[in-house]
Design goal:
With about 100 residues, this protein is an alpha+beta fold. It has one helix at about 75-85; strands at about 20, 40-45, 50-60, 65-70. It contains 1 helix and 4 strands, in the order E-E-E-E-H.
Length: about 100
């Protein structure tokens, strides 16, 4: 069971513990996707209003989607996603 009592949970589409989701939408909230694949959390991004959002990629069809984080999302999992790009840069750091 996932609570909808914390801030930002009214339209949550992901598990607050592992941050994974399910590909159920074509457009936000419509539940019209026939894919139904697992949506892997691959990153976070900071929106123009300084709010964080999760970026998910469908493991079945490759679709990318984003959804705002919620007040009870796992902080360690969010910070791990945020640090991933810094931990694995696409170029050598000793240049």
């Amino acid at each position: 069971m996932v609570s909808n009592l914390a801030t930002g949970t009214g339209h949550r589409n992901h598990c607050p513990t592992c941050l994974w989701s399910k590909h159920v939408d074509m457009s936000a909230g419509d539940r019209h996707s026939s894919c139904q694949g697992k949506m892997e959390p691959i990153s976070v991004w900071v929106k123009s209003n300084a709010e964080w959002a999760l970026v998910h990629r469908c493991t079945s069809c490759g679709t990318l989607k984003s959804n705002r984080i919620a007040g009870d999302d796992n902080e360690f999992a969010l910070m791990s996603l945020a640090a991933r790009a810094m931990a694995m840069p696409p170029f050598p750091l000793d240049r």
